[in-house]
Amino acid sequence: MVDSSETIQEIAYKLMLEQNKNEKILNGPTERTTFVLGSKGVGKTTMINNFLDRNESVKPTLALEYSFARRTNLSGQSSQKLIGNIWELGSLANSHQLIDVPIKSHGLEQFSAVIILNLSEPSELSNDLESALQGLKQSISNLYSDDEIRRFRHNIIENGSFKDHPDINTMEVMPCTTVIIGGMYDKFENLDPEVKKHVVRFLRSVSHAVGATLIFYSNKVSSLSKTARDVMNNLLFGSPQNPIRAVKTDYNEPVLISHFSDSWEKIGVMPSNSERISITFTSQIQQTKSKENKEVNDPTKDPNFREPIIDDLRAMKDEELFRLIKNSEMKVKFDSFNLANSPFNYLN
């Protein structure tokens, strides 16, 4: 029923909004978000740049970086503009508030997380993976109620028709689509076979426990770069629908396992959760503090972040501060000397 008090322009505007809403429902989401986080220096920015076809020098990501990609989806006689938001977290250390930002900005409905780990440092894998997973879980818990989180998990399981998976009742499925990428595979493939076996079993177990896709990656191996690119395209634009065409679980080869296609039986372990799996892995490969927990270098002294005007002003202020400190020290010394020689000093 039309409100007689409405003008023709207001009615036309409402009809336009309704039409846009119906088109979004018919054609699917027009905007998706992928959040990339993980080990420091593993090549997160390089992977994103390759996906965006950027050919530029890579600088270390200090905090949180945002970029985006556009695609046009041609459907019949109409076309639909698609936007893919990409957020990158520079460091896992003290990052809880930063992790909130992309989730709060875009919501979980069309949100995915990509955790990239350094395979060439097996002694840091457990700490980095646990930090990333716990950071995501904590942020989601801060922003959503338990009922909402259960609904997101239910949607992931139902939409993918995974409710009949034999292990579904023993899994702690993440409330957002999650991909775990083992980076620097070109270095990992030369490690001791026993180490590789433990690493692959650990990553398969955690990925299966949280319902994540697991792939190995190196920007130096063209086939693995293509797979990572296809996975990013799938997350942000929905195509290709099956970026992983063949499952590979052999630890002597690059691992490729789609979410919910593995099982506890295939892995050869008992059902468990990510925390207990990490404890078992730590008993096999001792874990050390990762680069994330080491002191962060002063970016003002990093040649990658030179800003001539700001650097000159900073140098002037540093020199001024140095002079003030020296003057204060001299004043304290003079005051101490005068006090020591004062006739009112009863300690003389």
How does CATH name the architecture of the largest domain?
A: 3-Layer(aba) Sandwich
Give the overall pLDDT as a whole number: 84
Distance between the termini: 100 Å
Helical proportion, percent range = 40-55%
Spatial ordering of strands, largest sheet? 2-3-1-4-5-6-7
User: Number of helix segments?
Assistant: 11
Which stretches of 5+ consecutive residues score pLDDT under 50?
344-348
Give an overview of the whole structure.
The chain is built from eleven helices and seven strands. It has a seven-stranded mixed beta sheet with strand order 2-3-1-4-5-6-7, with helices on both faces. Strand 2 and strand 3 form a beta hairpin. The protein is α/β, with parallel strands linked by helices and 348 residues long. It starts with 7 loop residues before the first helix and ends in an 8-residue tail after the last helix.
